[in-house]
């Protein structure tokens, strides 16, 4: 999977401190080059609306790479494969999320942590498309 010749779109929850910090931590632009980070709460962005019609953005991060759309742990696996392996955090991320059995166990825990954190911070769920 080569990232330098295709654009990666990553849809994440900009109100979630974990999601926001995770995206910044990976430094995807260094590894992939053409990356657009899109806050899934931008309900007026036609790309967000189109994606929200396909997947529930409250259920996880999403990524579009080339002609493919990935959601939840599959999106994390694609992002992990594309992120630079120069940093320890990215190596750990890749080690976890490129192993489907481990990813299937860990991702729901991360998703629950996000939901609890948003509730504690008084932030609502993403409100468009699939996630009504």
Radius of gyration: 14 Å
Outline type: globular
Strand order of the largest sheet: 2-1-3-4
Average of pLDDT: 81
The fraction of residues assigned to DSSP E strands is 5-15%
* Count of extended strands: 4
Series of secondary-structure elements, N-terminal to C-terminal = EHHEHEEHHH
Distance between the first and last residues' Cα: 34 Å
Q: Can you tell me the residue ranges where pLDDT is under 50 for at least 5 consecutive residues?
A: none
Q: Tell me the number of helical segments per DSSP (H or I, 4 or more residues long).
A: 6
Content-based structural category: alpha+beta
| Main β-sheet description | 4 strands, mixed
Question: Helical residue percent?
Answer: 40-55%
Task: Summarize the topology.
Layout: E1 8-12, H1 17-26, H2 28-32, E2 35-39, H3 46-52, E3 62-65, E4 68-71, H4 73-82, H5 88-97, H6 100-120
Parallel strand pairs: 1-2
Antiparallel strand pairs: 1-3, 3-4
Helix pairs in contact: 4-5
Characteristics of this structure?
single chain; 4 strands; alpha+beta; globular; four-stranded mixed beta sheet; 132 residues
């Amino acid at each position: 999977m080569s990232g330098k010749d295709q654009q990666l779109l990553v849809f994440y929850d900009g109100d979630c401190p974990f999601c926001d910090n995770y995206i910044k931590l990976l430094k995807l632009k260094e590894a992939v080059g053409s990356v657009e980070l899109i806050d899934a709460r931008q309900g007026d962005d036609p790309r967000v609306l189109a994606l929200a019609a396909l997947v529930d953005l409250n259920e996880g991060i999403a990524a579009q790479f080339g002609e493919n759309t990935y959601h939840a742990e599959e999106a994390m696996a694609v992002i992990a494969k594309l992120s630079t392996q120069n940093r320890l955090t990215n190596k750990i991320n890749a080690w976890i999320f490129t192993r489907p059995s481990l990813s299937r166990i860990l991702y729901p825990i991360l998703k629950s942590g996000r939901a609890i954190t948003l509730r504690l911070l008084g932030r609502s769920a993403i409100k468009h498309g699939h996630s009504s």
